[in-house]
Amino acid sequence: MRAAVVRAFGEPLVIEDRPVPEPGPRQVRIQVEASGLCHTDIHAAHGDWPVKPNLPFVPGHEGVGFIEALGDGVTHLALGQRVAVPWLGKACGRCEHCLSGWETLCGQQINTGFGCDGAYAERMLAWADFAQSVPDGISPLDAAPLTCAGVTTYKALKVADVRPTQLVAISGVGGLGHLAVQYAKIAGAAVAAIDVTDEKLELAAELGADLVIDARKNDPGEVLRRNGGAHAAIALAVNEAAFSAAYSGLRRGGKLVMVALPAHGTIHVPIFDTVLNGTSVIGSIVGTRQDLAEVFQLHAAGRTRVIRESRPLASVNESIDEVLRGEVKARIVFDFGEGR
Ligand code: NAD
Ligand code: ZN
Ligand code: ZN
User: Is the peptide bond preceding residue 56 cis, with omega within 30 degrees of 0?
Assistant: First the structure.
């Protein structure tokens, strides 16, 4: 089977022929139909973070495909069933986080395409308990971006506890942001979308943003404050300065939800302002299996649109460059079906 492999951090991925893996106990093997390119895969391939994957590895945590082999002990999934394989490849199921509905914080989790091989491959393994059934009627090419970009932003808006009378700032209208705008609208909020390219700002407006802010021309914090300040700002731009701008655009009692993971990222949080204004600064990491089920439910009901461009896996390196140059409209999805 073909797979795109990271052999060295910062080097182009290598398309290799690899043996088809055999599922272990409680695992399944999936014939991958579609695999989204999340910016996290680029961070992983570049070794951007304090924690790095072991080399070599196959990235990809927006994998969607059919189950073609069942490991021992798998009883709730069937051959031929379509599933999605998210970043949360596995969690322990026993710790306080797992038991309290916060499996995304499990200290023993294994992350797909990071701690084990991921979805940039014709076949992949997944732990059956964390492979999410994809409802009929959702195209695999749509399901792929929902599996990380969708669930992550849906969860970030839950964490922000967004209400219909509120103003929500979405900073960065990329793969994650274009879905965040839609979830914020579904929650009933007014949305201010911030980006640095005309195309993304136009897309945000098309998806329902009430206000678009071009961070090249205006200080987003100042524009938000002029509009009363944001009740919540969701930081999705791979840019440190964008976090500070989002923080400065909050109203009293506002929440900054940090989601993007720029390399070596830090922000300066002034103690006095944070205390006096009752500001919350919250980190939010992906979403649970239940969150992903809700994301699929909304999409199956026709309430979200996935903006995507499909490509063959062989284009992986050019595709990564395009994401880094900000040229992709929202999400690239590797299509393993026709025309691969
Ligand atoms: P992306 O490249 O598709 O989108 C980033 C967007 O930010 C682009 O539209 C870009 O134009 C915009 N941008 C760049 N500079 C900006 C600025 N100064 N102000 C406003 N916008 C700006 O990336 P993505 O796949 O959406 O991922 C975004 C980030 O989220 C990455 O760092 C990724 O690793 C991270 N991520 C985190 C989680 C999580 O669970 N916390 C999950 C998935 C992805
Ligand atoms: Zn992701
Ligand atoms: Zn756990």
Answer: yes
Give the N- to C-terminal CA distance of the chain in Å, as an integer: 13
CATH number for the region 151-283 comes to 3.40.50.720
Q: Per residue in 138-177, pLDDT tens?
A: 999 999 999 999 999 999 999 999 999 999 999 999 999 9
Whether 58 and 121 have beta carbons less than 8 Å apart is answered as yes
CATH 3.90.180.10-classified regions of the chain? 2-133+307-335
For the stretch 67-82, what's the b/e string if a residue is b when 16 or more beta carbons lie within 10 angstroms of its beta carbon? bebbbeebeebeeeeb
Distance (Å, whole) CA 133 – CA 139 = 13
172 C-beta closer than 6 A to ligand 1? yes
Looking at domain 2-133+307-335, which CATH architecture does it have? Alpha-Beta Complex (3.90)
For ligand 1, what atom is nearest to the CA of residue 171?
20
